[in-house]
Amino acid sequence: MTSLKPAGEAxxxxxxxxxxPICDRPVRPYGAFACDACAGEVKYVxxxxxxxxxxxxxxxxxxxxxxxxRTRHVxxxxxxxxxxxxxxxxxxxxxxxxxxxxAAWYGRMMAQRMGGDLIRLHPDALVPVPIxxxxxxxxxxxxxxxxxxxxxxxxxxxxxxxxxxxxKRTAPLKDLTPSxxxxxxxxxxxxxxxDVKLKTIVIIDDIYTTGATVDAVADVFLKNGARDVFFATxxxxxxx
Length: 240
Ligand SMILES: [Zn+2]
Ligand SMILES: [Zn+2]
Hints:
The chain is of the alpha/beta class. Helix content is about 40%, strand content about 15%. It has two domains: about 1-40, no CATH class; about 45-235, Rossmann fold, CATH 3.40.50. About 35% of the residues are buried. One zinc ion (ZN) binds next to α3.
């Protein structure tokens, strides 16, 4: 049976070639993780960014974005790879249309463009934001964990998926104000292990918007002995 496996996999990739995370068509050139043309179209976060959350700044002379200027975040700092709008359709398919294969490109691009910055933080672990067990059953995967695993393999920082659990089901946060998000997320996470020995952590998530989710996860670790909690996300929303 085992000798048939590689042949089977090759056949599967012929019949179902890897799809490009941007155009969702079979990747050109064959064997790549995203089309060359598509990879050139997405917008990477660049230029002046918020010192706290890494969001592109509307006012380039400012130190913080409007959100961080008025919010006290418990995470220390964060960075994101893409400007959300340029990859919103891609992330939608990744989360809600079963396109888990996109994680291969996402994780590689994060490693390539942010890996050095993350390694310099000397984190003990990458911790993907967990999803609730009911969502795990319906979706079948945690999109943030898929990204974290791909990234981890390339920057040699371990992933700790069970370090924190989501114990509360929450409605989608996208239509809520920052304070409503904070209220809804109160008590949503708890430690998944008894004794945390992680001092420096990088939380991994797909989208950063107001930071409410990252703060809620960071809070759990900071109350249990962690010293610094950073985050890295695939995309960041603009000017919230
Ligand atoms: Zn493409
Ligand atoms: Zn900010």
